[in-house]
Amino acid sequence: MSSTNPSTSSILIIGCGTWGASTALWLARSGYKNVTVLDPYPVPSAISAGNDVNKIAEGRARKPFEEFNGPEAERLWTYNEIRADATETWLSDPLFKDYYHETGYILAASDPKNVEILLREEQPTPENGFREVNTAAEFRKLMPEGVLTGDFPNWKGWSKAEGAGWCHARKALVAAATEAERQGVKIAKSKVTSLLVEEGDVKGANTEDGKEWRADRTILCAGANAPQIIDMKDQLRPTAWTLAHIAMTEEECKLYKNLPVLFNMERGFFMEPDEERHELKICDEHPGYTNFSTINGAKSSVPFSRHQIPLESEQGVRQFLRETMPQLADRPFSFARICWCADTVNRDFLISAHPDYPSLTLGLGASGHGFMHIPVVGKYIVQCLEGKLDPKMQRSWRWRPETAVNRDWEALQGRGGGPNKLRDFGAIADDQWTKLPARL
């Protein structure tokens, strides 16, 4: 394995989505002079989950490790630490702070079992800035009159006015990549088909055009497409979610500006409209979709791109609107797409050296909560590359194929909503998708 000397080491990053762009930025900030990033699409990649108008950014405060107890202490501290670091950096880094909107957060569930999950995992306590929301009238008062008009049947919630909100995903992604380029990183449009392996180590990557891209060190940040490039030993499950936009008038956008994020873990979520297109994005909440097939004798979920969503998902979006904003429930969609992520078994990140290839570093496994970390996740991937990652993080994010032995590919992994089961795109006929016109 080649050592990492910022002045002389050549670094190849595969993927320029959220984590690839963040890694490129932090390599440049760390003084690396010879960094190349490969992606099939120009920034922002058409298939990147980060190429989106907004993402939830629910903040955390730092806590010393001593406050975490039990066998999960290291995992919980690691999750809290990177989330707190991201929160601080959204607020302070000049590159990112204009894209973070601290508008507040409303967290809710309808089923008592999911209420218990929220209480356990999100800890919406007064000490963490939350207050209870129990009635439809209380929910409606959390936004300007005329926004929330629904009956909120069986909803139980909590709200906080500070320390959470949303980030403009696409602008933050482009900002990270643009700043990396300004500092000398080279971003090339080229699709990686395989790793270049010689003498038992990774020496770079092969691309669809037949070119070899050689480097001293390679970092794989290919998201849900990583299992098509290297055997991940079933540690990643590419899983997709669905989103839709509806057109809003200029007056509606003014009314809906600076809204707190509203998230129900069974129904869906939304935040304020996009000012540029005057569109409101809504996501229906469900455990996800897969696209399983057998490749070389192994079962795998294979991502694909489509700017439509299944009709059953459209109904989920409209049901969410009927419960919260029925005045919008029947409005036509102006845009829709499926959005892929890669789930690890326990939804912890996978940021690790590869055990078989000393020159390969992995930055994978965003598991549905990766984007809000774009200001800092690249820093930790660089620390992993250099062998400087905190030991607790190293253990939490390690290469861990033992956790995926006989993996339950249908596991909900703590997610609810919809039919409360994982759904497969292969079971959806072509006439069971929306038929929205292509967006130019």
TrEMBL record:
The keyword Flavoprotein applies. Keywords: FAD, Flavoprotein, Oxidoreductase. It comes from the Eukaryota. InterPro entries: FAD-dep_OxRdtase, FAD/NAD-bd_sf, MTOX. SUPFAM superfamilies: FAD/NAD(P)-binding domain (SSF51905). Residues 11-383 form the FAD dependent oxidoreductase domain. Gene3D superfamilies: D-Amino Acid Oxidase, subunit A, domain 2, FAD/NAD(P)-binding domain. Pfam families: DAO. Its cofactor is FAD. GO terms for molecular function: flavin adenine dinucleotide binding; saccharopine oxidase activity; sarcosine oxidase activity. Belongs to the MSOX/MTOX family. This is FAD dependent oxidoreductase domain-containing protein. It comes from Cladosporium halotolerans.
